[in-house]
């Protein structure tokens, strides 16, 4: 179960990091196990001071763009998202695709 969870979480984190890179959006994704948080900050983000330097308004736009497409992530950069064993590879890939589309539309 833990190997599968690690595989799913890694797939999501790598996919989201790739989406940030492909869209040239300054972002950092922190992950520990199945917990992750994305920051609109070129990073690294390892302290509260660095979190506070992140673009909260851009995160808000990103959150709402994802929500409109049926993807619910933590609504704040101060919260973690979680991957579970209920998630599938297809859902992870769809989340990454929706996130990349949303990133392209941010201003």
In short:
By secondary structure, the chain is mostly helical. It has helices at residues 2-22, 48-52, 56-68, 89-104, and strands at 28-32, 35-39, 81-82.
Within the largest sheet, what's the order of strands? 1-2-3
Helix-strand pattern, N to C?
A: HEEHHEH
Q: Per DSSP, what share of the residues sits in E-state strands of 2 or more residues?
A: 5-15%
Integer average pLDDT: 96
Helical residue percent band: 40-55%
**Intertermini distance:** 40 Å
Unreliable segments of 5+ consecutive residues: none
Structural class: mainly alpha
Strand segment count: 3
Radius of gyration: 13 Å
Shape designation = globular
Describe the protein's architecture and organization.
The protein is mainly alpha-helical. 51% of the residues lie in helices and 11% in strands. The chain has four helices and three strands; from the N terminus they run αββααβα. A hairpin with a 2-residue loop joins strand 1 and strand 2. Helix 1 packs parallel to helix 4. It is globular. The N and C termini lie far apart (40 Å).
Summarize the helices and strands and which ones pair or pack.
Blueprint: H1 2-22, E1 28-32, E2 35-39, H2 48-52, H3 56-68, E3 81-82, H4 89-104
Antiparallel strand pairs: 1-2, 2-3
Helix pairs in contact: 1-4
Provide keyphrases for this structure.
4 helices; 51% helix; single chain
């Amino acid at each position: 179960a833990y190997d599968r969870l690690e595989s799913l979480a890694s797939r999501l984190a790598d996919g989201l990091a790739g989406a940030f890179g492909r869209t040239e959006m300054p972002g950092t994704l922190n992950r520990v196990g199945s917990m992750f948080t994305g920051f609109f900050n070129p990073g690294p983000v390892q302290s509260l001071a660095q979190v506070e330097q992140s673009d909260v308004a851009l995160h808000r736009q990103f959150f709402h763009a994802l929500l409109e497409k049926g993807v619910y992530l933590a609504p704040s950069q101060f919260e973690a998202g979680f991957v579970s064993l209920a998630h599938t590879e297809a859902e992870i890939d769809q989340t990454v695709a929706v996130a990349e589309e949303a990133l392209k539309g941010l201003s």
